[in-house]
């Protein structure tokens, strides 16, 4: 595996929990934010202690709502990352942000501490949908936030959008797409709405207050999104992601190439040293664990709750599963051979031949990837491929 790492940092706090959200995040814990940041800095330093020469080329602050952190707190965390690892000069440093947090001063501060990419949770331009999700912003606020971000010097902005909402018509989805494109983002990520257990949305559906998502309508919305974005010059490069040329998310490419990343902060997942790690989920227990002095081997920290060794067969399956998500690049046969000493086609021949025959998978001397039609059935095909 490459020696250049990524770091994912999970910030498990939100001001309010959106109705569809099943992420590891907690509201009304503002008093825990600084103790959490202090614990996170200890965790970064702890993991870095045994790998001070480890080079890092992307850092991603996800959540939760990272934009609840102050500029001072981002400065504190990035300072410890720089002191603990070798952070590339041109590292991609992203934060996920809610539009309502992005004031002029805050955006200038983010640039000053070195954050160069914003992933903004626009979700929809439709006020009724934003209310249904219990988001804390309006589309007017998103427009203002993006304008301020540009003024502050952000040249790499991604928007997150949700489709497949049971109360959303295809025309409303088209309007959201067009309004998102009007903001001239470099990158767009789409999330098909899923109804997860324990969410408010799930209860609303069970009580008959909201309709169930319709899979056929969601598939139409996905196809419409692809057509609309391609027309605007954003190319699909991953099942759920579109970008202008040169603006693919470098951090997420690390996942899709199945390359190593440290997952730090409460609830974060990581993959390093042939080991998948999961950190304690609850911020209070995480803070407590990082007060301990348990000695752990890289990439574990005192707050690691689970560490699983990955054998080569599993690594091969995982590399196929995530690599097939890359719709343009697919699985590069040469790179795969250099890593595992086998040709991906040879080891998955019957399944690849079957789906090539059905027009769902494309195969040439360089790569294996989904066709346009295959993308819609990607989960089914992947379940046979891995
Ligand atoms: S802002 Fe994001 S992480 Fe927070 S509750 Fe909403 S969807 Fe979940």
Summarize the structure in words.
It is a single chain. The protein has 386 residues and is of the alpha/beta class. It contains 16 helices and 15 strands. The protein has helices at residues 33-49, 71-84, 104-112, 127-133, 139-151, 170-182, 200-206, 215-231, 250-256, 283-290, 312-323, 333-340, 344-347, 349-357, 372-375, 378-385, and strands at 4-11, 55-63, 86-97, 117-123, 157-163, 187-192, 235-238, 241-243, 261-264, 269-272, 275-279, 304-309, 331-332, 361-363, 367-370. The strands form three sheets. The protein has a nine-stranded mixed beta sheet, with helices on both faces. The radius of gyration is 21 Å and the shape is globular. The two termini are 20 Å apart. The structure holds iron/sulfur cluster. Residues 14, 17-18, 21, 23, 25, 63-65, 98, 121 line the site of iron/sulfur cluster (SF4).
Would you count the extended β strands for me?
Answer: 15
On the 0 to 100 scale, the average pLDDT is 96
Question: Could you describe the largest sheet, including whether it forms a barrel?
Answer: 9 strands, mixed
Helical fraction equals 40-55%
What topology does this entry show?
Blueprint: E1 4-11, H1 33-49, E2 55-63, H2 71-84, E3 86-97, H3 104-112, E4 117-123, H4 127-133, H5 139-151, E5 157-163, H6 170-182, E6 187-192, H7 200-206, H8 215-231, E7 235-238, E8 241-243, H9 250-256, E9 261-264, E10 269-272, E11 275-279, H10 283-290, E12 304-309, H11 312-323, E13 331-332, H12 333-340, H13 344-347, H14 349-357, E14 361-363, E15 367-370, H15 372-375, H16 378-385
Parallel strand pairs: 1-2, 1-9, 2-3, 3-4, 4-5, 5-6
Antiparallel strand pairs: 6-8, 7-8, 10-11, 11-12, 13-15, 14-15
This protein binds iron/sulfur cluster.
